[in-house]
Amino acid sequence: MSKLKLVLPTPEYKEKIMDYKREFLENGDSMDGTAGLKDAESFEKWYTAFCNNLKEETVAKGLVPATTYLAISTEDGRLIGMIDIRHRLNDYLLSFGGHIGYSVRKSERQKGYATEMLALALKECIKLDINKVLITCNKENIGSAKTILNNNGKFENEIVEGSRITQRYWITLD
User: Fold this and answer.
1) Does the model's pTM come out above 0.85?
2) Which of 14, 45, 100, 127 is deepest in the core (most CB within 10 A)?
3) Three-state DSSP class for 119?
């Protein structure tokens, strides 16, 4: 049985989303897959940007349409993680970002949540007609690489940019 469900953000989740942001800021962690939550001045501005990102006609210049989901515990309703599905790739995403970005709050890591979140997001990719999914991670992020491999990711290559090494994986969906 699933321990998580993916839901679209709504204003009802404001308190949980802002608590999620607080935990990441306190720990100095990277907030991947959150549609810019780290830099948002307020929930309202972030939510407006999230809504605009959903469609090609309203997405911010330089970005691609994307859907961001909250990964909510089916047991207690806690916001465990966030995951962002980009509907298409631009040059930057093809090299470094991929179709999917995600994060799990520090207090909930190493419990299998990222693997389950990615599996659920891949089902959403099928609905978006994305059948070949690129996922990338920093070479030093062993947990993320394991998450990708646990979801049948096939390693393609590494891209070196300065001191950063990005690993690229593909997942083919049936």
Assistant:
1) yes
2) 100
3) helix
